Structures are given as C-alpha cells and as structure tokens.
Amino acid sequence: MDDAAKAPKARYAREDRIGVLEELLNERYSVRAFLPREVPRETIIHVLAVAQRTASWCNSQPWQVLIASGTAKERFRKLIHAEAASGAPEGHDFPPPREYLGVYLQRRRESGFQLYNTLGIARGDKAAYAKQALENYNFFGAPHVAIVHTDEPLGVYGAIDCGAYVGNFILAAQALGLGTIAQAALARQSGLIRRHFNLPDDRRVVCGISFGYADHAHKVNSYRTSRASVTDTVTFLDE
C-alpha cells in the first residue's frame, strides 16, 4: 500500500489547506492594543483544544497553561506591573539572550524602531522606551493573559516544546478572530508568578500570551515587521 493510500482523507484540497495556513501566518502580528471585550470561554477552549495537538518530544506534552481573566487578571496585572516598575531584580527561569549580534541585532532594532516611530517616540528617548516596555505588564489592555510553564527536569527541550505550543495557540487564535502577543517579558518575573499562582518550585515559566480582540483602530497595530527570505535562513545540501 502506498503512502497516499495510508493517509487519512482530507476535508480540504491541498491548495486550500496551504492557502489558509499562509493567510493566517501573513495576517498574524503581535497585538499591542486590545478591546476590553472578553472572549467567550468556549472560544478560548477551542483555541486550547487545537493547540493541544502540538507535537512534542516523546509526546511528553510538557506545557501547562494558566489563564487569568476578569478580576484574577486585574489582580495579577497590578502586582506584576508594580514589581516591574519598581526596578526590582529580574528572575528568569531560562537564561535570556546574552547578546544580539549581526543580523539579529539589525532585525531587533528594525522591529523596535518601527514600534517607536509608529507611536511617535523619538529615537534615543530612553524614558519613553522604558514606559512603552512597561505596557507588557499591563498586557497591552488585553482581557486575558495565559502563562505557559513547564517541568524543570525536562530542561530546554520542555521549553522548546512549549514554544511550539505557543505558535499553534497563536495561529488557532488568529483563525478564530483573536489577536495575541507572546511575551517573554512576563517570564522575567518568574518567581513572582510562581508565588502569586501557588505553583510548585519545580515549575519553570516559559512566557506569557496576552490575547483578546485586537483594537484595529489603534495606531500601534498599524505596522508589520519584515521576514527574512528562505535563502537567508536555509542551506540545501545535495551531495
């Protein structure tokens, strides 16, 4: 029996399947202004059910997700924003990038300057940069925030699997009309997150995802970042 005969029957033509995926990837962006309207619980569960199909190392499925909404979200927002604004030492569970060099530094700067230019922040205005960075801890006005955490013994591979989960969560949310922003910034307060949500000491915070309905009228949501070409990132070896 050939591979085609073994494959499950698809509901959609191949061109339609890849077309939808490309559309979702091209439409998606990091939302930095949300409407206050909450997402129905059944829609959130749909996103989670789709993301749960994420591939993982040995099918370990190491992600655990906390989702704060309503008054729980607001309590958490006030606490983490105050901590970040206080200048208290950060506490990552996973080491952040040591340094951005070469093309990675160029891409980071391009993305940052797009954000600042869109908001009318003058280049070099460090106080304004810092103020905008603190908006991470207001969840950019999102009505929901998810905290993705994993098990310490799984190490970096548990975090990698969670990264794949985050990507699928974001695409599922996009397909259902939601906006998202994945936030490594929240993981800077991993100790606070563990204490606030009574997580065991062996839980490791990977990132947060703020989500809801995007405020398309807000100028901060008007720009889009660039992407490197395939030739910039892939090497083919045939011999």
Please state the oligomeric state of the protein chains shown.
single chain
Which structural class best describes the helix and strand composition?
alpha+beta
What Rg, in angstroms, do the CA atoms define? 19 Å
Strand order of the largest sheet: 1-2-4-3
The unreliable regions are none
| Share of β-strand residues | 5-15%
Q: Calculate the terminal CA-CA distance, rounded to whole Å.
A: 30 Å
- Rounded mean pLDDT score: 95
Major sheet description: 4 strands, antiparallel
Instruction: Tell me the number of helical segments per DSSP (H or I, 4 or more residues long).
Output: 9
Number of strands: 4
| Order of secondary-structure elements | HHHEHHHEHEHEH
Residue share in helix: 40-55%
- Rough outline: globular
Keywords:
4-stranded antiparallel sheet; 239 residues; alpha+beta; globular
Plain-language structure description:
The chain starts with a helix and ends in a 6-residue tail after the last helix. The protein has nine helices and four strands; from the N terminus they run αααβαααβαβαβα. The chain is an alpha+beta fold. The chain is globular and about 60 Å long. The model has no long low-confidence stretch (mean pLDDT 95).
Brief overview:
The protein is globular. The mean pLDDT is 95.
Topology:
Elements lengths: L2 H4 L7 H14 L13 H11 L12 E6 H16 L16 H18 L6 H9 L9 E8 L3 H21 L3 E5 L6 H8 L5 E10 L17 H4 L6
Antiparallel strand pairs: 1-2, 2-4, 3-4
